Automatic annotation (TrEMBL):
InterPro entries, A to Z: CBASS_pafABC_assoc_protein, WCX_dom, WYL_dom
Residue ranges annotated for the WCX domain, each copy included: 254-329
Any matching Pfam family: WYL
Organism placement in taxonomy: Bacteria, Pseudomonadati, Pseudomonadota, Gammaproteobacteria, Vibrionales
Name of the featured protein: WYL domain-containing protein
PANTHER family in alphabetical order: PROTEIN PAFC (PTHR34580:SF1), PTHR34580
Domain WYL: 155-223
Organism this protein belongs to: Vibrio agarivorans
Amino acid sequence: MSVSLRRYNKVLESIPCYPESVSSLEIRQQLLSSDLLPMTTDEKSQLRTVQRCINQVVADNSSIEINDECRPYRYQIARGHRHPIKPDGMSSVVSLQVIEQEIKSMLPPTLRSDVDAIFSSLKQQDTKQTRLWNERFCYFPNELPLIAPNVGSAYFKLIEEALLNKKDLHFSYQKRGATEAKDYTSTPLGLFLYGNSFYFVGLVPGSDSDIRTYALHRIHSLKLGFSSVRTLANFDVRKHVQRHARHFAGGDKLSVTLRIENYSGLHLIEETLLSEDQVIVSNQDGFTTISATVRDSHTLEWWLMKHANIVEVITPSTLREKVVEMIEASVRLYGL
């Protein structure tokens, strides 16, 4: 993490909640004790650096109040507002643990250093409440976490540079299932994260509608090209994925009817529902039939396969037939 970012985090961390407050002089002293100000400069230069950082922190956080009736000014988190980063109770500790477990597992190793530094800073906060809940609460992911694939350390910077300067990218890419990589050129349009894998969306050079998606971890080498011949002035990655990439965002809404075995599938019926409009159609012979509206997606198919021993698809017939095909393929793999 850069010194400027560490300094920013330290300033934000140093501003207390109402009724306490802190002055720029006190913040300067805290930065000095954390080796976040150059010792070779004079006090006036150090205070200018501190004030610039404070001004940026205040601009980014509307909950910070400034008392300008005294000199030097004093700063505090306004009454009734929680501290932006300093955990002070159960909700903060719970949120921190969940975010750390989920977000860090989704990021490739090349993006984790800054996140690690942020969490390390937050964990240093020591209050009665945080000590209590750090001992009395623990978060466990409910699924087998997959390790994020490796991505070239410079890829994100190169893609950002290409987007800012409207340049093409040249890369060597190995398609899923292919035995070797091939060379491609693309005009970058954006990135998105699906699970713990990053994907790059790009335009075929010279086209204004041929948009393709590439997994960053399948790129073997990447370099900047020349200025793009043609690019799109406006492009919304989320809308594009939702409209054109069923694999990632899910397809159209789909009404399904499922028959669930009661004993093993009770949590699917009463607790972890498929959708807010899930309703029970019938209940007999140890099975409950439900109806729900879901996204027609690969995730739905994977979920059905995961619970294939306790969940039967009744309708629609196309989905039922697809699940049957996948079950038959699974059985063949085991030679049955």
